[in-house]
Amino acid sequence: MSQTKEQIFNNVYTILVEECGAPDGSYRQSFVHYHTEERPEWHSKTTEWRFGGKLRFGGKFWVREGYGEGFTVNCYNEDATLELLEIIEKTNEKLAGLFELYKEVQNGKGAVV
User: Fold this and answer.
1) pTM
2) Rounded-to-10 torsion of CA 67, 70, 73, 76
3) Is the pLDDT of residue 86 over 80?
4) Which of the listed residues 12, 37, 53, 107 has the most CB atoms within 10 Å of its CB?
5) Cα–Cα distance for residue pair 112/104, rounded to 1 Å
6) H or E stretch including 49?
7) How do residues 92-111 score in pLDDT, each as one tens digit?
């Protein structure tokens, strides 16, 4: 079953809330809007979104297309603890499947918002 970009990024944000403690509510709406709005061709294919949560101030979600592509989260190196690295690893594993859906939508194989 194909999904829209809006559904994919809603699902991404659910993972950020559940795994990383990202704030919900209007933050979700802003996140989804930012990642689904049309951008000019020259715009960077890499975007970042600071959400904080358990990953502290440096907690960011990344969309990388092209080299090293994927959906990932990370935190500042100085904040990294074993606990946070485990959260990051688990989150990135969950995000990997959603990135595959996202690529299908980007390549015209799924529904697009």
Assistant:
1) 0.89
2) 0
3) yes
4) 12
5) 10
6) strand 47-50
7) 999 999 999 999 888 876 55
